Structures are given as C-alpha cells and as structure tokens.
C-alpha cells in the first residue's frame, strides 16, 4: 500500500538506493525520484530499479511528500538547509545520518516536518551498486524525535521503516550520539587504526581475525570523517574508555601476570559470547 | 591413502578435533587416537567421528607414528616435554600452537622429529563440538622448520597439511611470531579491549560493526593468555605501532582537522579494500 505519493531521495548511495529499492519492491510510494551529483549514479539507480527518475539538481524536485537526505552528515546539514526555503511546510523530511545531535538541532529549526533517522544497517560496501531492497529487514532503525517533532510526521516515518522491515527504536539525539559512539564509531576508529598499523609484508598471513576486525575499515572516508567530527566529544570519551581497557591488558602482558590476564580475557570472552552472532 | 598408521592427537578441541575429522574423512591414517583430560570430550570426539579411540592418560599411547599436540601453548610445551622420554626417536611430533619460538626452541631439543605448525584456521568457536573435517580447506598453515628440523619429518608434515586442504608456508619461528603478532595477536587484544569498554546499556544497539570487530573476543581465555605471554615482546611492539596509528586519528579529531582525518581514513580504507573479503 502506498504510504506516499512522491518520495525524493537525495543521495542515491548504499542507504538511499536501498531505501528506494525497498519502497519500490513494497509499493510504498507511487513515485521515487533520485537526486545525485553524478549522472552515472542516476543511470545506475534507474537501471537497478531503485528510483523511477533522477536529476542532478535538487531544484528539480517538485512537490514530494517525503524528502530523504541520505548523504554524509555534513552534506545532510548543508543540503537540508539549502532546500528549507523551497520545501512546502507539509513535506516530511527525514535524514539517515549516523550522528544526530547536530543534524537534528540544525534541521528541525528549518524544516517543520523533520524527523531524524539512523538505520543501523550500513556496511563497508558503498554505492547504489551494493543497494538491496531488503537491507533493513531485521535491522534496527533509531529515530530521534525531540519535543519539536510533529507526532504525525514521526508516526509516518516509523511506519515507513517498519514496512521496510526494520525494528524501530526512539532515542533522543543526545543519547543516540552517546550510545552509538561505543557500538559503531569506536569500532570504526579501531578498525581504521588497526589496518594502518599492520605492516604490508605480513598481510599475506591475514586470516579471519584480521579480516573480521578490519572489514569496516573499507568504509567511505568522507562519510566517516563527518561522523567522527560531528560526534567528537562522545567519540573521544569512548576512545578513552577503550584505552583504559587496553592498558589493563597491556599492563598484564608487561608484568607477565598470567592469572590477571586470564581473568580479563575471560570477562571479555563471556561478555562477547552473550552478544548474539 | 594412509600417510600414517597410528596418529595420536593430544587435545581434542576445535583444532585437534578438526584434524582428526579431516584425517579420517580422507583416510590419511589407519587409526586415530585421542587424548583428553575429560571423558566427556573423548566420548563426544568418538561420537563425531574425530577419533577412533580415546584415553585420559598420555601413557596409553602406544607406538604412534605421529603425535599431534593441539593444546594451548603452555600445555604444548609441558606435555611435549613430558612425553619426550617415552616417545620413540622415529615418531613424528607436531604441535599446532599459535606462537612458535618458545615451543620450537624447547621441543626440538627434546624430540628429534619435531615440526612446529600453526594452522591459520582457528575461530572463536571452541571445542570438538565445532570441529569440521574441512576446517583447513583453503586456509594457510605455517610450518616453522629450523636447521635442526629433519627434512623427512618436514616433508611428511607438509604432505599432511596439503591433504587436509591447506596451503603451506614455511617461516622460521622468530619471523612467524613477529608477523603473526600483527595479523592475529594484535586484533585479538583490540577485540578483547573493545568489548570490555562498551557499556552494557548500549549493547542492544550493536550492529555488524561491533559484532564483526569483536567476534574473536569470544575466544578461549587460557589459549589466549598463553599466546600473548609467550609472544609478549612482539605483541607489545605491535601494540605500540597500533597506538601510533590510533593517536594520529585521535589528534585529527581533537584538532577538528577534517582534511587530515579524511586523508588518514582514505589510506586505511584503500589498504583494507586491497585485502580480499
């Protein structure tokens, strides 16, 4: 059933493309428009069935009832501000950025029907070429309403994500940014640092240990530069907490404290085993 | 074709059990004997078809032509030394430990036909219950011969691993321990530290980023305590190299250096993309 007449997706990459495919597969909108800076991306997105039509310029969007900002965080803020003068007050606007405080604080003052969303279904894979209609099935999507968020807008956006297969959780933007810094931003920083520190002449010995721990280091640098800088306070706190854990293991190794080291590793192992898959 | 008459596997866990299953599936030995401290493990290993018979005591092994030490490193050294007086000089002895310098240096002086091996096919999954006949197919197995290693022993052990499906690489024990500290030991330390530093109240938001980066933190603590302490010099050097990489990212975040941060992340991303899967 169509929830929307016309949806405009600005940024047709992995996330935007997957939302387009998911909407079209489930017939959640009568029309899906894509906006990209690259003609090649638009052609690919049309060929894959992620959008019906595409444009290079945001001015070409006419009367959508939902605009989805699916770009790196800084671009979300910039483009969100840019379109605010031309967007009809009734139009829903949703972003999919990985940090929420700065995005929501900026855009909810400019766009009366703005809802912040963060689908936890990204991947190190980039681009519409890797988009999937079922990318969000079984995943979590965090919505970040505030006191300014319209209840109607929130419930329509919630419905969209549920139809796309996601479980929806609501958190305020500040809390989202804090919790996500541990489960997503910190692991990315460590993966980026780890792959950089491994000497090239040892990479031929890499097995699943290194591959699994660094898979997300193949992620897009612009996306992640924006994420880390727009959530720097939380990220640095999370990093310091990690460094304390690391220094406990390091000390035990330096002191050859077998019993102490085994205890730390056992606690960690049990904590990880409790986390599914 | 049987390469061996009687193989005795001491330690029937994930690795020992998988070797047993692999040998029996391919009929590489006429008989596979298992030794474990636990009757339950022996019964399970027999039920799974990983061994033909099992014993609680190493004294029960009579006239094997290959003994495989598949335990945590410290137990390999301890049990290897213990059996050295009763092992016939012609008997091949191989270990499967993840650090090689201390193991090889100790055991090659006690066992004339000793060959060090490190199959890079472990997993955070533990025990014979998770053993697989094809665990080593397509994986790498590092053999660590020295000037003292018998050429005949080495070529028979090499043949065994090739039959089990592994690609064999030879490295001296010192070089093995250095290179492996980066691609295996360092990732484990970071995974253990990371899962410990994540607040429990954020774990419900964990997606593939955290799960992939910490999967190996579910590993066995005794195994890993031994690995880290028997390779502490290399491990601490690798850790320091990682901390330098990490501090570059941390500084860029603190200084809000968008251009510098993006450059570091791009280098890391390209390096990881060049590593398959």
| Low-pLDDT segments, ≥5 res of chain A | none
Count the beta strands of chain A: 8
Strand portion of chain A, in percent?
A: 5-15%
Question: SSE order of chain A, as H and E?
Answer: EHEHEEHEHEEHEHHHHH
Describe the structure in your own words.
Two copies of one chain form a homodimer. Chain A has two domains: 4-171, 3-Layer(aba) Sandwich (Rossmann fold), CATH 3.40.50.720; 175-273, 6-phosphogluconate dehydrogenase C-terminal fold. Chain A has helices spanning 14-25, 39-48, 73-83, 101-107, 151-163, 173-197, 208-214, 221-230, 232-254, 258-273; strands at residues 4-10, 29-35, 53-55, 66-69, 92-95, 114-119, 140-143, 167-170. The longest helix of chain A is centred in the last third of the chain and has 25 residues, at 173-197. Chain A is of the alpha/beta class. In chain A, strands 3-2-1-4-5-6-7-8 form an eight-stranded mixed β-sheet, sandwiched between helices. In chain A, helix 3 (73-83) packs parallel to helix 4 and helix 6 (173-197) packs across helix 9 (232-254). The radius of gyration of chain A is 21 Å and the shape is elongated. In chain A, strand 1 (4-10), helix 1 and strand 2 form a beta-alpha-beta unit. Chain A is 48% helix and 14% strand. At the A-B interface, helix 6, helix 7, helix 8, helix 9 and helix 10 of A face helix 6, helix 7, helix 8, helix 9 and helix 10 of B.
């Amino acid at each position: 059933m169509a929830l929307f007449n016309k949806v405009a997706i600005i940024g047709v990459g992995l996330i935007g493309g997957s939302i387009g495919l998911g909407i079209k597969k489930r017939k959640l909108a009568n029309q899906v428009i894509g906006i990209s800076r690259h003609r090649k991306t638009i052609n690919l997105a049309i060929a894959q069935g992620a959008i019906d039509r595409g444009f290079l310029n945001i001015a070409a969007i006419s009367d959508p009832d939902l605009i989805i900002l699916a770009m790196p965080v800084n671009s979300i803020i910039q483009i969100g501000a840019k379109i605010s003068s031309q967007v009809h007050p009734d139009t829903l606007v949703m972003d999919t950025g990985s940090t929420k405080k700065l995005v929501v604080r900026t855009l909810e003052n400019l766009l009366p029907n703005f809802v912040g969303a963060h689908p936890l279904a990204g991947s190190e894979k980039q681009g519409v070429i890797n988009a999937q209609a079922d990318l969000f099935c079984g995943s979590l999507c965090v919505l970040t309403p505030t006191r300014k968020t319209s209840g109607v807008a929130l419930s329509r956006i919630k419905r969209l994500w549920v139809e796309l297969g996601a479980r929806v959780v609501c958190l305020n933007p500040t809390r989202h940014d804090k919790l996500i810094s541990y489960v997503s931003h910190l692991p990315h920083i460590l993966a980026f640092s780890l792959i950089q520190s491994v000497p090239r002449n040892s990479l031929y010995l890499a097995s699943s240990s290194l591959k699994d721990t660094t898979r997300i280091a193949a992620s897009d640098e612009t996306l992640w530069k924006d994420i880390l800088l727009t959530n720097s306070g939380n990220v640095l706190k999370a990093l310091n907490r990690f460094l304390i854990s690391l220094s406990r293991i390091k000390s035990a190794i330096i002191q050859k404290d077998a019993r102490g080291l085994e205890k730390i590793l056992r606690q960690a192992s049990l904590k990880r085993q409790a986390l599914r898959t």
